[in-house]
Every structure is written in C-alpha cells, then in structure tokens.
Amino acid sequence: MIRVLLADDETMIRAGVRAILATDPGIEVVAEAGDGHEAVELARLHRPDVALLDIRMPRLDGLGAAEELRRTVPATAVVMLTTFSDDAYIARALGSGARGFLLKSGDPRELLAGVRAVAEGAAFLSPGIARRVLDQLGGERLSRTAEARTRLEPLTGREREVVALVGAGLSNAEIAARLHVVEGTVKAHVSAVLARLQLRNRVQLAILAHDGGLVED
Q1: CA separation for the pair 17, 104 (Å, rounded)
Q2: Per-residue pLDDT tens for 37-81?
Q3: Cβ distance 32 to 45 under 8 Å?
Q4: Is the pLDDT score of 141 beyond 70?
Q5: N or C terminus of the chain: which is more exposed, having fewer CB within 10 Å?
Q6: What CDD domains has UniProt attached to this entry (predicted)?
C-alpha cells in the first residue's frame, strides 16, 4: 500500500484528488493538510511514502514544504501538484527536491502513474512538462555547442586535430604517433592551445572538444 499525504489549501481540490487516488486500491490517503506547515507536521507524524503538495499555499508554500521535508522526512517522495507550468516553478520545484511535477489540468491517469512512479524511487513529470524540460536542456546543449565552436574557431587545422585527439583521451605520445610527429611538438601544441583558450588543464580542453563537436559522444 502506497501511503499518501495530500496538501492543498482548496478543500474541493483535495476532495477531487482524493477521489482519483481512491480509484487505485494500492494507494491510501493517510493525511490531508491545508498549508505547508501543516503538511510538514503531518508528514513527520504519518511518514507517508508520497507527499502531494500544491505550490501555492498559505503560511508555507509547497516549495518551502518540499525543502523542509527533504531535510526532516527524506524517505517521503515529494510530488508538486499545481495549475502553474511556468519554467521558474518547474526549476524551483525540482531544485527543492521534488521527484514529480503534475498539472491539475492533466489526465487523472497521470496522477496515479506519478504517485506510483515516485513511490518506487523513480521521477515523474507530466508529458507537457517533460517536453518543456527536454526542450530547455536541448537549448542549453545547443548554446554550449555554439559557444565552444566560437572559442575553437581561431585554432589552426593542426591544433584542432590535436584538440580532437585530446578530447578522445589520447596521451601526448599516442597523439604524436597518430599524427606522425615527435611528442615535443604535441606538447607545444597543447600548451599553446591551453594558453590561447585560457584553459587550466587537458580535462577542460577535452570538455571543450566534446562541446564543440570535435569528438563524437
């Protein structure tokens, strides 16, 4: 049996969520709270498997309650249940330790699937939220790639070859053998590139090589 704490300051919302959860015989609502402080107190008392928290609640909002639960009742998995899909809310919710993010406007089946998923140790996002998170991560990756390519652009063809091989994990001796040059030449190229790109070591250079597309993942 998955034991659930439900926290929302709107009584009718709590009743609707409770009714949906009641359709699954493996889920039991063990406590209900009308604000964040009450949710934390009841979670300490009942030790539920999952806490369903609304983001906007009086006294202490769901984000603050999630952070407090992470510190005091870490075994309780937190799922944020809200009408707000703003990126800032998503980022703050995940940063506060929440393992799930569900929209009240979503399919009731998402609620049941989300509760079961986080109770089993997984994470769960509403499909619409998941798409936004993936789009954001993809945008960040594209941004890193563009920045890396701009930094690598001034390098000569030979320097780019050396950087690519550093990114592939080859040693100076292995790079020298691959390029048919002496090891001292490779060392000189690496030192010159590190200085020009203002990097501290080969690890940073390897990361830049991957971000810039010189090395396949």
Answers
A1: 9
A2: 999 999 999 999 999 999 889 989 998 999 999 899 999 999 998
A3: no
A4: no
A5: C
A6: LuxR_C_like (cd06170), REC_NarL-like (cd17535)
Q: How far apart are the first and last CA of the chain?
A: 42
Query: What is the arithmetic mean of pLDDT over 5-11?
Result: 95
- Global confidence as pTM: 0.61
Q: Which residues contact 175 (CB under 8 A, 6 or more apart)?
A: 162, 165, 166, 186
Residues 24 and 65 occupy one common structural domain: yes
27: three-class secondary structure by DSSP: strand
Q: How far apart are CA 70 and CA 55, in angstroms?
A: 15
Look up the CATH number of the domain holding residue 196: 1.10.10.10
Mean pLDDT of 83-105: 75
Give dist(CA 66, CA 36) in Å, integer.
9
Tally the domains of the chain: 2
Q: Are residues 108 and 183 in the same domain?
A: no
Task: Please give the structure tokens belonging to residue 174.
Answer: 């292995």
Which tens digit of pLDDT belongs to each residue from 155-181?
A: 999 999 999 999 888 888 989 999 999
